[in-house]
Amino acid sequence: xxxxxxxxxxxxxxxxxxxxxxxxxxxxxxxxxxxxxxxxxxxxxxxxxxxxxxxxxxxxxxxxxxxxxxxxxxxxxxxxxxxxxxxxxxxxxxxxxxxxxxxxxxxxxxxxxxxxxxxxxxxxxxxxxxxxxxxxxxxxxxxxxxxxxxxxxxxxxxxxxxxxxxxxxxxxxxxxxxxxxxxxxxxxxxxxxxxxxxxxxxxxxxxxxxxxxxxxxx
Length: 218
Known about the structure:
It is a single chain. By secondary structure, the chain is α/β, with parallel strands linked by helices. The protein has a single domain, classed as Ribonuclease H-like superfamily/Ribonuclease H (Nucleotidyltransferase, domain 5, 2-Layer Sandwich). The chain has six helices and six strands, in the order E-E-H-H-E-H-E-H-E-H-H-E. It has helices at residues 31-47, 65-76, 100-116, 136-157, 180-198, 202-207; strands at residues 2-8, 20-28, 80-88, 126-131, 169-174, 211-215.
């Protein structure tokens, strides 16, 4: 199981901060297929002049309406499961608003693992790939919280008797420019936040049929 994760929005609470924070994730049935698809889309967009040739990766925020729709159409046509974690920040507990690492881990890690772990086969590998945007401290906290959360949910929530070999589980913080599948997750996150932040759901609807995990904390 390969999970690719990216976010849109911020976890600030100032007047200028986003109203929503969204984590989007993609679980492809065939990782190489999704990588090839994303690379092919970028190549064709370069060839047709629809995307800046100096841009080495696809980003929802830098894309035209055509590119956004095209990428999400291609993604929805593949064998993938899509997930969205949508945090409406005005519903966030006051006690967590100045503790971004804790808020991030609870919002993203807790809900991600709680939803995907029930379908995990302990004989398989579990790899989570996330954009290298977190600080070093936040990455360490993410990794530690993830390991603890997996063990707790497996035993206390799912009551699974199989031994869970965490050496078969890995989290990697990588540059999205080198990981086309994280770029796909960026489009999921961007389309979802646009729907909730501004009410523009045209891109979200393109991928809606493939959304398996829809999560709204609080």
